[in-house]
Design a protein that fits this description.
The protein is of the alpha+beta class. Helix content is about 35%, strand content about 15%. The longest helix is centred in the last third of the chain and has 14 residues, at about 100-115. It is an enzyme of class 1 (oxidoreductase).
Amino acid sequence: MARLNVNGVVREVEAEPDTPLLWVLREQIGLTGTKYGCGIAQCGACTVHVDGAAVRACSVPLSSVEPGQKIVTIEGLAPGADHPVQKAWAELDVPQCGFCQPGMIMASAALLAQNPRPSEAQIRQEITNICRCGTYNRVLAGIKLAAERGQSG
């Protein structure tokens, strides 16, 4: 039995210690916004925040989540999907198919929380998520717009 703080709610889950956090979130807790893409921490579709840091949940074993750490998924990022990144995404029609977008949004939100005014070079260096549709220019524009508007939206 493990105790996790997910989106501000403490939950008890039963899973093997080596179960990836991704599967605990999706299968045990039912938060399916976090996506499975590659399973080897390369694509970023499974990005969530652990204590504010963007992590690839497919490569984080349940046993490595410390008691008291705060996990935030796309469902818990902002009530009403009103985070500045989410607003910019909607305004600029960033996603095409949308599969990778929860991970892109979570990675972008973590970047802006850490660096509210990143340069284009910093964005390109930090956002390593893969989009099979190739919407990278719109992702870049969305991050820039969210940065311009600030964390308060």
